[in-house]
Specification:
With 283 residues, this protein is α+β, with helices and mostly antiparallel strands. The chain folds into two domains: 135 residues, Diaminopimelate Epimerase, Chain A, domain 1; 136 residues, Diaminopimelate Epimerase, Chain A, domain 1 (Roll), CATH 3.10.310.10. The chain has five helices and 18 strands. The chain has an 18-stranded mixed β-sheet that branches.
Length: 283
């Protein structure tokens, strides 16, 4: 069997930055267990599988596809950067002729469209709720300004003090074992560290910064995370009183996301892409 596979760096226009995702195009149904084996083999934070919903569908002409995402350890209900990567493969490699693509996923229908040199994802917007405890030992003695929880995504949002510079977030050293030891209840599946942006200095222009950790899914740090920004968008829109924002995820690869809250309770998250690999899985 041969399956076309691509590696796409998402939320960047520079190869080897942003967040890499593998994308597989499934011409036929794939044995269930093979999804996980392939994702483990690719060993990226996510591998996306695009499948035809009907036998007569065409990757060049159809506008609706099934989409699933797998980490090296398990399937996940939502992945923004791998959705961006999947849309990029259809738009840029398969030259799909539709203005809007619809993906049928575990998180409902997600749409992607091209706007100039960006691909815009229409994602769910997830609310956060205040947490009583202000202590999270896994980030050491950092001053925490706010602590929120998103029950829909099982993500914990930790806002660091506004007194910190972006460099503090970038240089923070974390341990997967510390996170796993601090949270064993199953309530948290992802940890977002976030910081308010600066209006001055060399990094001015970004409304907020973040880093994202998911050792509970086998990913210590994810470089640029669309699904985390579906949570961050609602929080920072409320805090800043803005619906249009520019965000930067401060991993070592780094990536930029353009955010626009919609009136229908969803969020548009836009990013650029760089395609770095084309090939075939053969087995």
């Amino acid at each position: 069997m041969q399956i076309p596979v691509f590696t796409v760096d998402a939320f960047t226009n520079q190869p080897f930055s942003g967040n890499p995702a593998a994308v597989c195009l499934l011409e036929n149904d794939l044995d269930e267990a093979l999804h996980q084996k392939i994702a483990t083999e690719m060993n990226l934070s996510e591998t996306a599988f695009i499948r035809k919903l009907n036998p007569g569908d065409d990757f060049t002409k159809s506008s609706r596809f099934g989409l699933r995402w797998f980490t090296p350890a398990n399937e996940v209900p939502l992945c923004g950067h791998a959705t961006l990567a999947a849309a990029a493969v259809l738009f840029h490699i398969k030259k799909n002729t539709n203005s809007v693509l619809t993906f049928v996923t575990l998180s409902g229908e997600l749409k992607a469209r091209q706007v100039e040199d960006h691909i815009v994802l229409d994602l769910p917007l997830y609310l956060t709720y205040p947490q009583v405890s202000q202590n999270f030992a896994a980030i050491g003695d950092m001053i925490v300004q706010d602590l929120r929880y998103s029950p829909d995504t099982k993500k914990l949002l930790v806002r660091l003090s506004d007194a910190y510079e972006r460099s503090v977030l970038e240089e923070l050293q974390v341990s997967a074992q510390c996170f796993l030891s601090a949270e064993k209840t199953g309530k948290v599946k992802g940890l977002i560290l976030t910081l308010k942006g600066n209006s001055s200095g060399k990094h001015k222009g970004h409304d907020f910064y973040s880093r994202y950790f998911a050792p509970w899914y086998g990913i210590l740090e994810d470089p640029v995370t669309g699904s985390a920004h579906a949570v961050l968008s609602s929080y920072w829109s409320e805090q800043l009183g803005k619906k249009e924002m520019l965000a930067f995820q401060c991993s070592h690869r780094g990536g930029e996301l353009k955010i626009s809250l919609r009136n229908d309770g969803r969020v548009d998250i836009a990013g650029q892409i760089a395609i770095v690999l084309k090939g075939n899985l053969i087995f």
